[in-house]
Amino acid sequence: MDINEMTEKERFSMVPVVPLRGLVVFPESAMSFDVGRPKSIAAIKSAKITNGYVLLVAQKDPQKIEVNENDLCRVGCLCKVKKTEAKEGDVLQVFIEAIARAEIESIMLTGNIVLGEYLLADVLCTQKESVPEAAKAASLRRSIDEQCKRFLALTEDGKLTSMLEMISRNAGDIGYAYRIANLMLMVPEDRQKVLECDNYIDRCTELIRLIAKNCEVREIKKRIEESVREALDKNQREYILREEIKAAQKELGADEQSAAEEFRRRLEAGEYPENVREKLDKEITHYASLPAGSHEAPPMRTYIETLLDLPYTQMSEDNLDIENARRILDEDHYGLDKVKDRIIEYIAVARLTGKVNGQIICFVGPPGVGKTSVSASIARALGRKFVRMSLGGIRDEAEIRGHRRTYIGAMPGRVISAIKQAGTVNPVLLFDEIDKLASDIHGDPSAAMLEVLDSAQNFAFRDHFLELPYDLSKVLFITTANNAAAIPRPLLDRMELIEVPSYLANEKVEIAARHLLPRQMEKNGLKKSMLSISRESIETIINDYTREAGVRSLERTLATVCRKAAVDIAKGKKRIVVNKKRIEEYLGAPQYSFERADEAPEVGVVNGLAWTSVGGETMQIEVAALPGKGQLQLTGQLGDVMQESAKAAITCIRERADKLGLAPDFFGTTDLHIHVPEGAVPKDGPSAGISILTAVASALTGIPVRAGLAMTGEITLRGRVLPIGGLREKLLAAVRAGIKTVLLPEKNRKDLREVPEDILSALNIIMVSDADDVLKNALTEQPKPRIVLPQVPVMQGAHA
After folding, report:
1. 37-71 per-residue burial string, b: 16 or more CB within 10 A, e: under 16
2. Which of 194, 214, 420, 760 is the most buried (most CB within 10 A)?
3. Reduced 3-state DSSP string for 380-433
4. Which residues are catalytic?
């Protein structure tokens, strides 16, 4: 049926729907608008294909992108699409002519391959309405005209006046109310209320009410402006804003004291120390007296809220059950027995004394060995809140103590902010990377930390922002560091160092199997039935694709394996078994390899043992003795300490030249070249002393060094062997390289207790105390001492 032949109420089926955001269309109007949502574009195209009619209806929430029937108003406008123009960015400009008011009866989602999805609606349209009796209609129009004139008097808009005069000349028809509403009402909600009126009288009555409301708003604004203008000080522009706000609050009946009253209510309901209560009472009273818009209000509000939010009596109840603590620590971490034992001791003392305090713990170790996570486990074992505070790169004292309130944007320091975040007075507070503290012209944050970590002072810690002492004595402080030598001495003196060593290969295998692999399988959506990785495969990944003290790189590598396996499973495979071949397929060629011990004795080549930040390494030392003039060459990026060790070893050999069967002047006729392979890697330290000594002695005497032998130890000029560090990691590297015998300093005998039994059982360890012991156990045969004949004095001849 044609729209011009429509009766008073006519039903239309399957009309394409375009939801409008912030826009309401009235009948008997023409306009253009842009559509960009795919469903709206599909609806416009569908209308053009059929009869050109489309339903424009407003959304209840203009912010929503995806809408359904519950998101749309129940009354819209049936429109005729006149033309469309494509714009940039998949936007369509639509020109329409609004035909009739339409009530939605039902909505459905439809679509096809060409157009895509869009909404269709069955609507009941109104074109012809019954006109009320002449007297009633005239009365309504007069009321509308009066309200319009009232509004025009408040706006003084000449263009609006001329448009209203044009509409008034055609006041006799039924669309008069729509045209007035289209011109006078700007708020979409107001326009929708007029559209939803289903008869002429109700529509005019609602229009009169809405225009009158707008007039009242204009009058209130005008009274506010007049009130401000009377009190205006021409030289103070800031005063304008304050008076406008004050007048607006007075007109609206707003309670200026609401914020202050809320602060007062919280103060009365909470438990606060007397000095804090007095300070808060004073500050809240001052805050309530501030004029609206005062520049003092924001910082004062921040200060009051900080004091109110800080805990003063709220405490977590400590769980001092030793068995529970041991269970939690074992659940979260494998190994770290020394660390766990120290924590259990800590809790045992707390159980006997009834309070958790005492020495501040500092975990020292390389990255990725679990220093931060074990701190979180301590908090979980004790039942306390845990807050981590990173100190890396902090160079301003105010970061610790806070800023004074005289500064713009002042705030409390990180310590007080952490306590506020925890919400209790006894959290576990972790100062992470305390060795990375820096200092500059803004002060030394490590000096500010002294007060925080000193139990003799922190019961009355003063933050510059608070201006009141705050009790930190109930907080359990834990710190972490990679290098204890970088921690300032006064700060180090207040802490108990607990070394968290690098993980051994067998420990990494257990950690990966128990914690890392299950976590990565869960993250990547893999079940146990989908992926199988044996411990041998994990060990291959550790040895060939990671080189670290901790397990962070190992976890990333396992994550890569899980992602690759997920791809294969997504392609249709049911189960993935990770073996050596598949490891190379997923991760590529091995990235690292370990030097294996020489199987045959060699002259001038010795296996040394070195400690690095990622564990122990074997390190070959090569020496060549050549005819020359006594020159010494050191290559392989040797540090100053290692170069001095080489010179000390050579001097020790020169002193033992007779024992080694060397000529007294051998050094003047022989050039020595000492080289440590992998020249791109810097090397330093004194522990290669006996290795260099043995290599030089072998090169000069021509006696080979035993196969399958490694050694570590510092040498002195007199041939004494001094102890070294990193013994645990060095012996593990020896086992990994296939070494059978290791020479160690006698003074390191006590340190063997820290080495796992499986490593000790795999090695023949010989303790040495001097250079003679080293050479006796290192060379395949003993050098023949040079025989020195006594000199016979020559008698001068007698003269007659």
Report:
1. bebbbbbbbbbeeeeebbbbbbbeeeeeeebeeee
2. 194
3. HHHCCCEEEEECCCCCCCHHHHCCCCCCCCCCCCHHHHHHHHHCCCCCEEEEEC
4. 687, 730
Burial class of residue 589 in the structure, from the number of CB atoms within 10 Å of its CB (0-12 exposed, 13-18 middle, 19+ buried): exposed
Cβ proximity of 772 and 719 under 8 Å:
yes
Contact assessment for residue 708 and residue 659, using Cβ atoms and an 8 Å cutoff: no
Residue 469 contacts by C-beta under 8 Å, 6 or more apart in sequence?
A: 460, 461, 462
At how many degrees (to 10) do helices 689-701 and 640-655 cross? 50
Specify the pLDDT at position 541: 92
Classified as helix, coil or strand, 42 is: helix
Q: Given CA atoms 693, 696, 701, 704 in this order, what sign does their dihedral have?
A: positive
423: left (phi over 0), alpha (psi -120 to 50) or beta: left
DSSP string, 627-671: ESSS-EEEESSB-HHHHHHHHHHHHHHHHTTTTTT--TTHHHHEE
pLDDT, tens only, 292-313: 667 888 888 889 999 999 999 8
Could you write out the DSSP letters of every residue in 703-721?
PPBPTTEEE--EE-TT-BE
| pLDDT surpasses 80 at 140 | yes
Separation between Cα atoms, residue 388 and residue 601, nearest integer Å = 54
**Residue type for 76, please?**
G
Tell me the per-residue pLDDT of 606-628, one tens digit each, with 9 for 90 and over: 999 988 766 778 889 999 999 98
Grouping H, G, I as helix, E, B as strand and the rest as coil, residue 134 is helix
Q: What is the DSSP letter of 45?
A: H
- Are the C-beta atoms of 609 and 734 separated by less than 8 Å? yes
